Amino acid sequence: MRTVGVEEELLLVDPDSGEPKSLSAAVLARATQDDPGQDVFQKELFGQMLEFATHPQADMADLGAEIVRCRKEAARLAGEFACALAALATSPLPVSPSISVNERYEWMARRYGITTQDQLVCGCHVHVSVESDEEGVAVLDRLRPWLPVLLALSANSPFCQGRDTGYAAYRSRVWDRWPSAGPTELFGSAERYHRWVADMVATGVILDERMAYFDARLSARYPTVEIRVPDVCLRADSAILVATLSRALVETAARDWRAGTPPPDHGVCLLRLAAWQAARSGLDQELLDPATMRPRPAPDVVRSLLGHTGDALTGSGDAALVEEAVAHLLHRGNGAHEQRLLMERTGSLRSVVTECIRHTQE
C-alpha cells in the first residue's frame, strides 16, 4: 500500500478581529520548547503562516486522525499567544505580510519583488510514495489533466485582502506568478525530468531545485510524488478526501504506465485553461473534462475522477468512504462555497474568518 503524507499551511489570526498575526516564530519556539525533537511544525514564508507535516501513513483513517490532531495541537500552541488558526487559503481581511527571518526567504523577496510579497497563500501538499524516480515521472505525466479537479474540490480562497476575487480558488492564480509554477509538458523519463530541472536552476532565475514549483513534482526530500495544486481545505474531512484521491490517482497512473498505456498528450496551453476554469468556478459551474478538454458540469467531472480511479480505490479499501465523502462535499460545497454563504448571511469578512476558525478544528 502506498503511503501518504500531508503538509498543510494555516493562517495565524486574531480570534476576535480575524486579522492575520505575525506570530509563527513564537508559536514554533513554544512547540520546540514543549518537544525539542518535534518535526511536525515548520516555518513558512510569512510570519502569519504556520505549516505542519504529517508522518507517512498507509491507512487513511490514521492519516485523517493525524491531520485533526495536528490542527488541534497547532491551535493549542497559537492559543498560548492569544491567537487562533484558520484553514484559509488566502486572508479575507487586509494584511501587510511580514517575511520570516530566513536567508532563503530574504533572497526570494529581493529577487522577485512584489511577487513574493503577494504570496500570503496557504496550500495543501500531498506526498504519495513511489518506487523509483522512473515510476514517479511516469505518474507525473499521467496525472496532469486530473490535477484541476483536485483544485476544484479543495477550492477555499474566494476572498483576498478585503475583496471578493470572483474566484473559488484565487490562491492558485497568485501562486502561478512564480516563474517556475504551473503545469508541465510530458517528461517521458526520469533523466529528462532531472535535466529539465537542472537547466531551470542553471538559468539563475530560480535558486535551486526546491523552487521547481510544478503542479506536481518529484519531492527533493522524500521518495514521493508531491501534488501541490490543492488549496488548504477548510475542513479536515475535505483534506482527507483530497489525499485519498491523490493516492488513487498515483496508483492508477502507475498501473497505466506498467500496462503500457500512454499518457494523455494535452499541451500546457490546455492544462492552464483547465486550471483557470477550476480556480474560477470550483464545483459550482463547469470544469474541463480531463479526457476531452471540453466543458462539462463539475459534478460529472468529479464522478469521472471516481470512475478513473475506481480500481485503485477498491484495492485500497477506500471506495465506499470516498463515494460518501464526495457526495457529502458536492452537497455541502467546498470551502469557497461555504465562505460565500457565510458572507451572505453575516455581511462581514470578520465573521467569515471567525466562523472558519471553528470549522478548522472540527
UniProtKB/TrEMBL annotation:
EC class name: ligase
> Biological process (GO) annotations?
modified amino acid biosynthetic process
Catalytic activity, per the record?
A: L-cysteine + L-glutamate + ATP = gamma-L-glutamyl-L-cysteine + ADP + phosphate + H(+)
The keyword ATP-binding is assigned to this record: yes
Which InterPro entries does the entry mention?
GCL_type2/YbdK_subfam, GCS2, Gln_synth/guanido_kin_cat_dom, YbdK
A Gene Ontology molecular function term of the record: glutamate-cysteine ligase activity
Keywords, sorted A to Z: ATP-binding, Ligase, Nucleotide-binding
Q: Give the EC number(s) listed in the UniProt record.
A: 6.3.2.2
Signal sequence residues? none
Q: Can the keyword Magnesium be found in this entry's annotation?
A: no
* Protein task: ATP-dependent carboxylate-amine ligase which exhibits weak glutamate--cysteine ligase activity.
Q: Which family does it belong to?
A: Belongs to the glutamate--cysteine ligase type 2 family. YbdK subfamily.
- What is the name of this protein? Putative glutamate--cysteine ligase 2
Identify the species of origin.
Streptomyces diastatochromogenes
What is the phylogenetic placement of the source species in the record? Bacteria, Bacillati, Actinomycetota, Actinomycetes, Kitasatosporales
